[in-house]
Amino acid sequence: MAVPADILRTAVERYLDLHAHPELSGAEHRTAGLFAAWLTAEECSVTTGIGGHGVAGVLRNGDGPTVLLRAELDALPVTERTGLPYASTVRGVMHACGHDLHLAALAAAVTLLARERDSWSGTLVALGQPAEESLTGARAVLTDGLYERVPVPDVVLAQHCAPIAAGTVAHARGPLLAGSRTLEVVLHGRGGHAGAPQLTVDPVVAAAAVVTRLQAVVARETDPAEQAVLTVGRLHAGDQPNVVPDDAELGITLRAFTEDALDRLTAAVERVVRAESEASACPTPPEVTVTGSSPVLMADGATARAVFAAQAAHFGAARMRDWPGGMATEDFPLLGAAGAGLHGRSGIRSVYWMLGTASSAGVAAVPAPVPGNHSPEYAPDVRTALPTGIEALAAAARALLPA
Ligand SMILES: [Zn+2]
Ligand SMILES: [Zn+2]
């Protein structure tokens, strides 16, 4: 069944408001307040301020399992260039990852399920998670006792906007999104006068050698059939052309589909950094610190198949897609089994799917690529993607909460 017109109209209004008023990770004060108010209006029992600005609403509807639906509250430090009439009004901040669409869809799915509570039985939890873009929010809400404050879910569900055709929903057969590690590297040289390099140990040259050498880790040390990424996203050394600095710093992101591969990549970075530091005769050994990580996102097979079947029955097979897996990363797996070490609950199943947001005009505009997530020009086809997102969530929840 299509989303009733009044629910869709409200969802569109909410989306436009969220899109125009984005907030950065950890600063989602207004967004959290709106989301809490929307859930309260559906007679959810609402808890706020979980792990920062986290919001959870619980809708109890008789016996049955507990299903948690998650959306993210935060936006990105990106300056919007879509030219849309409802573009961000906050300079340098933009909902460039579609989290506004996730939130509007989730609130509308709760309305739909609250209105049709004869069609399902169990407990629904709607979570507005803060700080997803910094990959800290899931951990924060869990360590702040999310699963003591709401019923522990049997299944956690989420969807994410992706630049595939709007109106489609995509599931993966294997991993959906990569696991990640973030590494900070410091190379210690010996600073001095740029005109007397023989008296210095130049960390800029050492850092350049590290960056070049690291390119071989994926190209030459990784099985070509395996997907892995090693990106040096930040490189900083010195401030003046005529001064050799003391230190150089690198910020590195690793992505892969298994923890083994991430371990191997991490060890390779440590080895290359150590060796280049020695090759440059740096006076002090380098530092390599893992400052962040996120688990591989893998849906639970049988539960994901049940959700896929329910969505396929609702949308028709032509709107269902295969998702090949992507090298983006998420902290959502922590809410499920991958976070057992944090929340102490084993056996929480996860299902996740990608929600198409590219307009048919955009898809047809070959060879110009459709601006994807995190682009300043990212502009979901809301008219098509929003009702699809609402229906995808409701169909998934109903499949797992049968009457
Ligand atoms: Zn993002
Ligand atoms: Zn995102």
Provide structural commentary.
Pfam families: M20_dimer, Peptidase_M20. This is Amidohydrolase. It comes from Streptomyces spiramenti. InterPro entries: Amidohydrolase, Bact_exopeptidase_dim_dom, Peptidase_M20, Peptidase_M20_dimer. Residues 179-278 form the Peptidase M20 dimerisation domain. With 403 residues, the protein is an alpha/beta fold. It folds into 2 domains: 5-176 and 297-400, Aminopeptidase; 179-294, Alpha-Beta Plaits, CATH 3.30.70. The chain is built from 11 helices and 14 strands. Strands 1-2-4-3-5-14-6-13 form an 8-stranded mixed sheet, with helices on both faces. A 4-stranded antiparallel sheet has the order 9-11-7-12, with helices on one face. Helix 1 (5-20) packs antiparallel against helix 3. The chain starts with a helix and ends with a helix. The mean pLDDT is 96. One zinc ion binds at residues 97, 133, 373-374.
Are any ligands bound, and if so which? zinc ion
* Tally of helical runs: 11
Q: Number of folding domains?
A: 2
> What gross morphology would you assign?
elongated
Protein name: Amidohydrolase
InterPro entries: Amidohydrolase (IPR017439), Bact_exopeptidase_dim_dom (IPR036264), Peptidase_M20 (IPR002933), Peptidase_M20_dimer (IPR011650)
Domain Peptidase M20 dimerisation: 179-278
Organism: Streptomyces spiramenti
